[in-house]
Amino acid sequence: MIECRNVAKIYRSGEEETYAVKNITFTIRDGEFVAIMGPSGSGKSTLMNLLGCLDTPSAGQYLLNGADISALDDNELSGIRMRQIGFVFQSFNLLPRASVLRNVTLPLIYAGIKRQEREQRAAEALTAAALPEKFWSYRPHQLSGGMMQRVAIARALVNNPALILADEPTGNLDTKTGAAVLATFQKLHTEQQRTIILITHEPYVGEHAERIIRLRDGEIIDDRPNNQRRIL
Amino acid sequence: MRITDLLQETQLALSANKARSGLTMLGIVIGIASVIAMVSLGQGAQGTIQSSIEGLGSNLLTVMPGFLQPGRGFVSAGRGSAQSLKNEDSEVLRALPGVAHVSPELNRRLQIVAPTGNNTNSTVIGATPEYLAVRNATLAAGSFFTESQLRSLGRVAVLGPTVAADLFAERDPVGQIIRLNRINFKVIGVLRSKGGSGFFNPDDTVFVPLSTMQKIVAGSEYLSSLAVSVEQKELMASVQEAATAALIAKHRVDPAAPDFSIVSQADIIGTLTQVTDTFTMFLASLAGISLLVGGIGIMNMMLTTVTERTREIGLRRAIGARARDIERQFLLEAVALTFLGGVIGISLGWGIAAGVARFANIATSVSLASIALGSGVSAGIGIIFGFYPARRASRLNPIEALRYE
Ligand SMILES: Nc1ncnc2c1ncn2[C@@H]1O[C@H](COP(=O)(O)OP(=O)(O)OP(=O)(O)O)[C@@H](O)[C@H]1O
Ligand SMILES: [Mg+2]
Given B5, B16, B311, which is nearest A109 (Cβ)? Predict the structure, then answer.
């Protein structure tokens, strides 16, 4: 479960203070599929960095499974990310020199898990992300964009996280492959009851979630269930 | 993170850009190879000098006329310091406890003419039969002169192997007549080579009885030096002290400024070791500069790598790598490069040292210590020059690193 209580992030440049996000209060239950939407500069990425424990709030409280992460240091935040968070980025961020399988096992390397178990869990994650086995030994550059994003989804899944955060996961994909990636998220949500937060500025993409939180100028202006949900 | 995984990450990262890794490593290879080769030259020179000095006799004290002040060389004592040692002095020394043999010597540099017409300039040493025992010399042919030849001013000579070769080439010198200062001497023996070289070659000498040297050839009752061999190494210091006291009493001179000095073999080796150490250090630091340049190459490459892989660093941080995991990874990359370069450099340096010894005939010696030092230094270079880039990588802000274009 995720809980934000009056979370704010302030960026200082000299004397000037800008609130990237402020007054953020919401709760996301386990197994929810939420889209965070808003125009450019509305604070979506800032919020994702906070929820993903890449950053800590300037004010307010952020509770991840009941634990307050606001006061944690850099090492402890790394540990939380290692165990509880899976990231999917717009630009995939795969290591070009490593095979698909090794890219997916990477989070488990930092968790100190042995090779055999690593590869087994990576295989499960790749299967769940719907990437056929024949591609597992490929290098990322040998794959299409949609496949690369599925590798990234498998990497986000492999540590069995409490929360999957995807920042514009379809931003670099055409409509058709984008739809396949969104279908993968929906499948993970319905079949594995994953908690997924999808960040996007495209209404079409957001409509695949069960609930939509809208931001403008760093504040929540709307938070309601998505009644016209697209099911793929 | 497991160590095998860390090593595998390192291997993947370094093989990703083989040309760059190889060229950067080459800097270290050259640096370490030149250090090893240079140090081997210095140590080889040291070994040669030491063994040739030890070949001149073991447990040896040398008494020389004149007062040798440490660091100032010989200081003239005012009244003919070069002529202060006499034959009686050898009796005084022989009577001391712990003294095995005493060899009084008078040297001159003279022209030697053979009946073949060949001639050579060489050191003629007036000596006694004890010379052989004191200086560890042995005969290759014939015999050395005897006590009776010494007493009877015998005109006999024993040749060092270099002189024998210069004068008689392939022929047997024993029984031949040579001329020193227009006086005829019969050659009765040839010494075995000691293989010395450089500033003093013990093979380039001719020996005649001391009495003959003093009375007939040189016309001097004094000695150039007295070589004293001591029974045991442990007695060297006490014999040196006793000899100094005995000669001061005998010569009736001021103990603060005697007219002779006694140098032990250890002193000579010590001084020369200092010289060769300085020489070795000098060569090593010249080579060290190339190692430094190699190290800067490593740092340069690592900084470039860190910049190029900024997004990768951001990603690794996002999936749970701690700052210290990142630091370790980059440090290990630098150390792996320099260590590998070090190992190759040591082999190359060894090869160069062996090549120099074989083809240029200069003694070299690669010691275990210099190999250990070489590998230690190369790994150390990796740590020193890899530290800053690794630190920089670990301090990157994950959010900014992920956004880096
Ligand atoms: N490191 C920073 N320093 C200063 N201001 C920042 C920083 N990061 C973000 N901001 C500001 O915070 C606000 C929100 O930025 P954010 O990147 O969260 O927006 P976004 O909704 O993700 O936009 P986009 O859709 O373009 O990605 C912007 O006004 C931005 O200028
Ligand atoms: Mg953004």
Answer: B5
Q: Which of A148-162, A207-221, B262-276, B312-326 has the lowest mean pLDDT?
A: B262-276
pTM of the model: 0.76
- The predicted structure's pLDDT at residue A82: 95
Residue ID of nearest Cα to ligand 1 atom 7: A11
Q: Are A209 and A197 in contact (CB under 8 A)?
A: no
Report chain A's C-alpha Rg in angstroms: 17
% residues pLDDT > 70 (chain A): 100
How does pLDDT run across A46-105, given as a tens digit for each residue? 999 999 999 999 999 999 998 999 889 999 999 999 999 999 999 999 999 899 999 999
State the SS3 of B186-245.
Answer: EEEEEECCCCCCCCCCCCCEEEEEHHHHHHHHHCCCECCEEEEEECCHHHHHHHHHHHHH
What CATH number has the domain spanning A30-57+81-225? 3.40.50.300
Residues A24-44: pLDDT tens digits?
Answer: 999 999 999 999 999 999 999
Distance CA A65, CA A29 (A): 10
Mutate to test the pocket of ligand 1, among A10, A15, A18, A217 (most ligand atoms within 8 A of CB): A18
**Residue A38 to residue B150: CA distance in whole angstroms:** 117
C-alpha A219 to ligand 1 mean position (Å): 13
Looking at per-residue pLDDT, the higher value among B260 and B76 belongs to B260
Residues B230 and B228: their CA atoms lie apart, in Å, by: 6
Distance, in Å, from the CA atom of B237 to the CA atom of A166, rounded to the nearest integer, reads 85
Q: Is the pLDDT of residue B80 over 50?
A: no
Residues of B in contact with A49 (CB under 8 A): 399
Give A148-205 as a DSSP string.
HHHHHHHHHHTT--SEEEEESTTTTS-HHHHHHHHHHHHHHHHHH---EEEEES-HHH
The ipTM assigned to this model is 0.95
Measured in angstroms, the CA of A49 and the nearest CA of chain B are apart by 7
Chain B nearest C-alpha distance from A96 (Å): 9
Q: Which of B5, B12, B318 sits opposite A81 (nearest CB)?
A: B318
How does DSSP assign B101-162, residue by residue? EEEEEEEEEEEEE-TTS-EEEEEEEEE-TTHHHHHT--EEEE-PPPHHHHHTT--EEEE-HH
Q: Which of A199, A105, A86 is nearest to A153 (CA)?
A: A86
Non-local (6+) Cβ contacts of A151 within 8 A are A92, A94, A100, A103, A104, A126, A129, A131, A140, A143
Q: What confidence score (pLDDT) does residue B285 get?
A: 87
- Give me the residue spans of the domains in chain B: 3-52+270-403, 85-258
Cβ distance of B325 and A110 shorter than 8 Å: yes
Percent of chain A with pLDDT over 90: 93
> At residue B322, does pLDDT exceed 50?
yes
Query: Are the CB atoms for B112 and B206 separated by under 8 Å?
Result: yes
The CA–CA distances, whole Å, from A76 to A53, B314, B322, B379 equal 10, 17, 9, 31
Show me where the domains of chain A are located: 30-57+81-225
